[in-house]
Amino acid sequence: MSFKHNRITELFNIEYPLIQAGMIWASGWKLASAVSNAGGLGIIGAGSMYPEILKEHIQKCKKATDHPFAVNVPMLYPDIEKIMDIIIHEGVKIVFTSAGNPKTWTSHLQSHGIKVVHVVSSVKFAVKSQEAGVDAIVAEGFEAGGHNGRDETTTFTLIPMVREKIDIPLIAAGGIGNGKGMFAAMVLGADAVQVGSRFVATPEASSHQNFKEMVVKAKEGDTVLTLKELAPVRLLKNKFFEDVQELYTKSPSKEDLTSLLGRARAKKGMYEGDLEEGELEIGQISGLINEIKPAAEIVKEMISEFEETKIACQQF
């Protein structure tokens, strides 16, 4: 199938309008290069990397693929200036920003020939991002894993509302893990989709095997959005999650929640494989993930199912 005239494939010079999300502790150079080599857009997640580690991942990714790839940068990152300098120096051509004001870095990155995409969870911030001059927007519903918006707007409600208010290319994210979901999101107005959770369950993802296997075992209702007083995050239920729920029965302060969370909780769970005490971030779509398979196979299957769904819908 050809997506030759798709606005996202043209913007990024990729084959398919399918983007792998930049996820902490999961999306290093191996996953990003595998997705890019398969025709999508792979993203290195800088949120869990020190500057020198990110530099190493970018350099390895450049050796592993001749296709475009991107870096995702949470703008609350403490070493943001170093991160941006590395991205520019290493010649990365696409940056996805999140968790901050897009005005801060957009023009600077664009002055170096870099395409900038900002991730939002509401119509309000989609409009602000367009006004800031970004090249495209990711609108993410609260089905998504990891940190989420406070409004709890679902993806298939958010996408058509954002589409009405912006003119630039729109990427849908949250609760999308197969070709049918991809087709539905694009019918509602998205130019492409961003997929996170499905790519966690791959050999190339840098997350721990224990975490991958728990994602595969997850069923409907096994993830919950919590810790809204700090930063809303969708987690798999485990001992740590139950500890959070127990603390909520005591009307905790932000300080109490911060103390329980501690440091490196996500690393402990997703990267080191501690399924009891770790923070396990994954989306609701995990209920549809039944096996660990190579990233290239996922891309191929999603595009094939997208085409099959499109043909089936034409018969109605």
Biggest sheet character: 8 strands, parallel
**Total number of β-strand segments?**
11
Distance between the termini: 21 Å
User: Tell me, what's the shape?
Assistant: globular
Strand order of the largest sheet: 1-9-8-6-5-4-3-2
What helical percentage do the residues reach? 40-55%
SSE succession: HEHEHEHEHEHEEHEHEHHEEHHHH
Count of runs of 4 or more consecutive helical residues: 14
Overall mean pLDDT stands at 95
Give the uncertain stretches in residue-range form.
Answer: none
Oligomeric state as shown = single chain
Q: Structural class of the secondary structure composition?
A: alpha/beta
Radius of gyration: 18 Å
Beta fraction of the residues?
5-15%
Written account of the structure:
With 316 residues, the protein is an alpha/beta fold. The protein contains 14 helices and eleven strands. The strands form two sheets. Strands 1-9-8-6-5-4-3-2 form an eight-stranded parallel sheet. Strands 7-11-10 form a three-stranded antiparallel sheet, with no helix packed on it. Strand 5 (115-120), helix 6 and strand 6 (136-140) form a beta-alpha-beta unit. The radius of gyration is 18 Å and the shape is globular. The mean pLDDT is 95.
